[in-house]
Please model this.
Amino acid sequence: MKIIVIGATHAGTFATQQILTEHPDYNVTVYERNDNLSFLSCGIALWVGNNVSDPNKMFYSSPDALAQLGATMRMEHNVTAIDPDAKTIAATNLVTGEQVTDHYDKLVFTPGSAPVIPPIPGIQSERVFLCKNWTDAKKLHDNAQSINSVVVIGAGYIGAELAEQYALSGKKVTLVDAFDRVLAKNFDRDITDRIEALYTKHGTVLALGQKVTSFTTAADQITVTTDQAAYTADIAVLAVGFRPRTELLQNQVDMLANGAVITDAYMQSSRPEIFAAGDSAAVHYNPTGQDDYIPLATNAVRQGILIGKNIAAPTERYLGTQASSAVALFDMTLAASGLTAAGAAARGITVDSVTIEQNYRPEFMLTTTPVAASLTWDPTTHQVLGGAFYSAHDVSMSANMISMAIQTKMTIETLAMVDTFFQPNFDQPINWVNAVAMAAVEKAKQAEPVI
Model:
């Protein structure tokens, strides 16, 4: 069987590994436009802040590793066309310029995503940087010591982490976002208000609820103008999001409105011989039961593995995702899984939510610290739909517990009484996850009609 894999960041790398592990006799050819693969871009901000021991360890695989498994590696090859009817692809060798045509029995489409670059005047300035791949990472790391100020555009996870690392390094930082809150798509206001206070405490200017209208480069600085103000710095970093890189399959397979390829439970597109995964594909979002676009490495890895398991025949179903995530900012842990109240409202879904705060362990301990915990649920079925946590204590694994609750369609009543251990070094007699679920149960009771 001849398999062609287009793109090898996370989904493509894991798909290739899994295919050749299960079918070592398959003929697998990988086309990748870069000279590297498997780069963990989530570590870019940490490297910029000098918190990475060795940047080479930010790669978990290599072209040689896949070749040793049996893959034919076509690095620095850009695929320019796909003909699904003829089952062929056309590619250009970016080093020699040679044009290549290749055929497949099955195609693994995993080209990933591209950074969103809005058509704003001046955005092509050499002082506007991106934060996506290894090349971007090296540029940001190399100039981090020479700059004194930066404007970060985009207050999602990437922008928030970059702004934090620049602030901790003593840079003058401005964080711009069209939303009125930092991490607005990840957490509700009861958590984002707390983290915004920490940005301000560390000298970061928060330019929230502002849209960038132009970039102006003069001498050795750049001015970022918004619809409300102007901010001048040594560089600007654009981190406003990603789009699926799916132009090659436009009008060939079913897609979401943004171009993400829709797949079935076995990672097959509407053309069964074409598989898709990672940032170029949609995910099944369990809190809503709908296809959605959520570009996370964890989604890409699982989808890539499933392609390998299903490449010969539909065998193992995709479980969907809760979009679980976590981030550390200013020594605080923020972790979440599933829907926030704001995210539900944006999707037209009715939910209820509650937030509590309790010390993570008993007061008789020499030290303890508060945990803020929130929970979101369906007010009709009481099914858990999301949760979020914030603390100086490491509460990141709590998001995984909420993920399991959503995955198994657990109710708030069940989550309230699920078995969790108690030991004074680690938690209270009632763990904060149980406690926020108990608060949800009480709130739900109060909302019940009096008969």
